[in-house]
Amino acid sequence: MGATAALVLARPFSLLADAAPAGRVAVGTCHQYGPGVAPVMSTLFDQLGGLEKLVGGKTVAIKLNLTGVSYDRLDHLRQGDTYWVHPDVVGSTIRLLAKAGARRVRLLESPMGSAEPLEEFMLAASWEPRDFENLGTKVEFENTNFLGYGKKYARFMVPGNALMYPGYDLNHSYADCDVFVSLAKLKEHFTAGITLSMKNCFGITPCTIYGDASPEDEPSPLPKGGRGPFHAGNRQPPKSAPQMINPQGPKEGGYRVPRVVADLVAARPVHLSIVDGIQSIAGGEGPWIPHCRVVKPGVLVAGTNCVSTDAVCLALMGFDPLADRGTAPFETSDNMLALAEGLGVGSRDLKRIEVVGTPISKGRFNFRQA
Amino acid sequence: MNLDPKWVPMKWPCGPLEWARRSKGKNLATGLKETIDAWAQPAALDILKGTPVNCLVVEWADGAPEDAAQQEAVRALVEAGRGKGISFVGKVAAKDVAAAASSAHAAGLAAVMVAEPAGSDLELPAILQSSRDKVAWESATPIFCVTDNVWPGVQMDTMKGDTATAGPTGVPWVNSNAWFSLLAPLMASGKAIWLDFDPPEESTVAHPANYPLAVSDSAVYGSRWVISLEDKLRDALLKGVPQAAATWSKTCETLAFFETHARWRAYKSQGILTVISDFSGDNAFLSGETMNLLNRRHVQFKVMERSKALLTPMPGEKALLWLDKDAPSPEQTAKSLAFVRGGGLLIAPTYWGLAGVKPTRRDPSIAYQVYNVGQGQIAVPDEGFQDPYQVALDTQLLVSRRNDLARLYNPATTNCHCSYDPVRRQRLVQILNYSAATANFVTLWVNTQARAARFWNCGTKEPETIKGVAATPGTDFGLPPVSVSCGLEIEV
Lengths: 370, 492
Known about the structure:
- The structure holds 2 protein chains of 2 kinds.
- By secondary structure, chain A is α/β, with parallel strands linked by helices.
- Chain A has helices at about 5-10, 15-20, 35-45, 50-55, 85-100, 120-125, 205-210, 230, 255-265, 305-315, 335-340, 360-365; strands at about 25-30, 60-65, 105-110, 140-145, 155, 165-170, 180-185, 185-190, 195, 270-275, 280, 295, 300-305, 355.
- In chain A, the strands form 4 sheets. Chain A has an 8-stranded mixed sheet with strand order 4-3-2-7-10-13-1-14, with helices on both faces. A two-stranded antiparallel sheet of chain A has the order 5-6. A two-stranded antiparallel sheet of chain A has the order 8-9.
- In chain A, helix 3 (about 35-45) crosses helix 5 and helix 9 crosses helix 11 (about 335-340).
- The longest helix of chain A is centred in the last third of the chain and has 15 residues, at about 255-265.
- Chain A starts with a helix and ends in a 7-residue tail after the last helix.
- Chain B is α/β, with parallel strands linked by helices.
- Chain B folds into 3 domains: about 10-260, Aldolase class I (TIM Barrel, Alpha-Beta Barrel), CATH 3.20.20.70; about 270-400, Class I glutamine amidotransferase (GATase) domain (Rossmann fold, 3-Layer(aba) Sandwich); about 405-490, Golgi alpha-mannosidase II (Immunoglobulin-like, Sandwich).
- In chain B, helix 1 packs antiparallel against helix 2 (about 30-40), helix 1 crosses helix 3 (about 65-85) and helix 7 packs across helix 8.
- Chain B is globular.
- The interface of A and B includes residues 112 and 117 of A.
């Protein structure tokens, strides 16, 4: 770890961390996709106090975790069975949101290097978007990798001491909603240690601004490439967007990516985190990471605080949410939960988090021993 | 003597004419003269023993001083070859085609290959050889030989070692003659198309060009490659170099595989989109590149020459892509509108529907005005068709992947071609791997329900049964490693 990184991590977060809210987290056991998913999720939401208050009459935006391209599979297995959130979990979520009175649901994702309609991206992966349209509420789709249907980008400033950028310009869908849901997968991440509900929000950023080929002054009309500048810090976003706070800072992904994630969940708060851990992969976030393997943790997790939810997920995966850099799963990265906790987003302290449903000890599935 | 569309042709460069032509070039390889001479000897025919190759193309008359010597030099070769059931085609570039055909006939050749349509009074039938944009489709010849093709494979500047790197679409840049092979049977039904192209210069004995792929890229789409071997490989073959023998053996295995499955050639190509153009003049670049790129995007399309388009029924057709600026005839206009009213999608450079229809946008990422006409739509680009990459991308989105017939997962550098035998009620999906590296964990998705498929890996004699995994909708087939090409027969 570079000296600067060590200094920044050593900053006394304790005051903010102690004040960070600790949300209740519900854990349910579910060993296979199919009709059994919805009842488990329904119980999870009941254990959180019900969704009605949160979503009744509201527009709910759901950031899905559909990372990578539409045609990559781990061996012959479908994406939902491995590294994407499964369509049964998406469908069940929509159905339960509808039942709780959600007026409208928007499914959002920023498919890699593409401005194609999100429905087309799903179809390319052999998902049927129409399956989500008759579940009791109006469902819309938007590719948030560019301006999309909006007239201008929505700016989200990071409250307090932002870590990488003072604010982020995002597709309008992240502003034109009352409730924001991160619907993620339970898995590790090559650069950032884990991919859970917080890291899922890395993908809310448009590559027209934060991509490898974005112009100097204004966003490009269409996205090209990936989010290399977030990883490498090799360039500023277009001048129209908030600029990197410390362009001379460390250029290492393990330092930068967790900070961007912490910034993002502080700037665009997550109201509901849902993590699909029924079936997943261990060893990385997608089949492009060597030696990834299929795992079947058999859990679903939901919570109203993304840091607390991810802390419980880490524990379920056999990791310590309080782990520092150098300790699994953060061998080569800073702990994004610690960083978000430092921004006051939420607590990662299991002693402060109320876990309901399946106890962690019963739901634990050790990813490193799988 | 008649031309046989079933001939399996091979270029057989030999003799004084070949040397006269080649010796004018720069950087002559050491031993080239000896190779060219050796291939004129009957003994050279031994490499054809047990292979499907049964037709050799030799230089015959160029209007050059070496013509007589050439014809004398190959006389023994022709005689020996005929004894082995091999037919010979003599290339004629001389002005006096009739005389050349007459001498070829006397020498026992089966046909001549000429650049211009020949009169009917020749003593031998003629195969027309021309560039893609100058094919005289109306000619009576049962075999067309076409030049200006590409060597199939992953474009070299996108390769890192044996690994393909991504192009702008995230998929490797693949060269293929597929679209032209798809066009040909529509232009000249029932006739054979020979594709004339040579291996790339960097091909060596140690690192040979992907000859099995050259065979497959032609055969899968219904054409035949006029086999053409690199000079050093030809030399090494006659010298019995094991590496050369292995390359040739693999090439012949591939040829034999497609000859064994010759009935696949008769299957009807399936497509959800018909691309319409005259494919010539100013339209040649846009149409050719668009089809290359549609193929790269795995869009299943058919091809139709503009003058013939829309004049016959199009059952099952979802969309038409009219690429040329030239307007359709009144009859074509009426039929295209009827197609749209019935639920079809027409993508055209200008709107030619009824006046007064207000266009809309389908999606912010697609810069097209979309007119709702009856149950269908006409989509017109804001700024005309300019960049073939964008045309292909937009076309795929406008047509929608919901209509896909097949998809590939973990495709690497593979592509697929869908066809159908209505009599056997059998679907055939052939998959080509354009890289030298084996494609692993490729999954084929087809839009129909099927319990199993017969998987024929190119070069094998027995199929493997692969169980289908139900998808919603359709079926997934997890494929064994694909080296060059394979075919899946799926009962529907």
